[in-house]
Design brief:
It is a single chain. By secondary structure, this protein is α+β, with helices and mostly antiparallel strands. The chain has five helices and five strands, in the order ααβαββαββα. Helices cover about 30% and strands about 15% of the residues. Strands 2-3-1-5-4 form a five-stranded antiparallel sheet. The longest helix has 17 residues.
Length: about 210
């Protein structure tokens, strides 16, 4: 009974990974063992609120928005050093961050790909090269309104966020293959690592008339 209940409550994409994607990636990446197949480790959502040093209510709004979006209470981030030009002192609260693991991570990724990203204005795909060299992908969104959980009439201001998808991939190519297997909307027609763009032909400059 408990096994049935656990299976029924398992996130949809996690089940798909275990039953379909993991085996396909093993063959695609030519890995010797299924345990070598990359998987998601955690997702970190960071929302910076630089103006919170002058208006504390903006930080409260960021915390509230992230709580609604992720279903988890965020951690308030603080400045590590003072910057006089920005009127910033060490220890000032400047943002909020959430780290998702397990079922919440899978559910957030599902909503992100299926619902939130398609709601971005004039969306033409995400850059395929925004990896850090260790299999982790980061991209930014300009407004929290792409998440349907946010009520437009109840927000104090429009704010963006950075989303980092951390994987166990050994290379960026493996991480890219993992994300593509889930239908992650990468932008097409861009240069990928290892490829060199052909140089454009240049005509010799004309000499001026004497």
């Amino acid at each position: 009974m408990s096994e049935t209940a656990t299976a029924a409550s398992a996130p949809r994409l996690k089940e798909r990974y275990n039953t379909e994607i993991r085996t396909r990636l093993k063959d695609e990446l030519q890995l010797a063992n299924v345990m070598q197949v990359p998987r998601f480790e955690k997702i970190v959502i960071n929302m910076g609120v630089g103006r919170a040093t002058q208006q504390a209510s903006l930080l409260e709004g960021a915390v509230k928005d992230l709580t609604v979006i992720t279903g988890q209470k965020p951690m308030v981030t603080k400045a590590r050093k003072s910057i006089a030009g920005f009127k910033l002192r060490e220890g000032n609260a400047i943002g909020a961050k959430v780290t998702l693991r397990g079922a919440r991570m899978w559910e957030f990724f599902d909503r992100l790909v299926a619902i939130a990203i398609p709601r971005i204005r004039d969306f033409r795909g995400l850059p395929p090269n925004s990896f850090d060299g260790h299999g982790n992908y980061t991209f930014g969104v300009t407004e929290q309104l792409i998440f349907p959980e946010i009520n437009y009439d109840r927000i104090d201001t429009v704010r963006g966020m950075d989303i980092t998808i951390c994987t166990t991939a050994r290379t960026d190519d493996e991480a890219r293959a993992l994300l593509r297997a889930f239908g992650f909307p990468f932008r097409t027609g861009e240069t990928t690592p290892g490829l060199i763009e052909p140089q454009k032909s240049r005509r010799p400059a004309r000499r001026g008339r004497k």
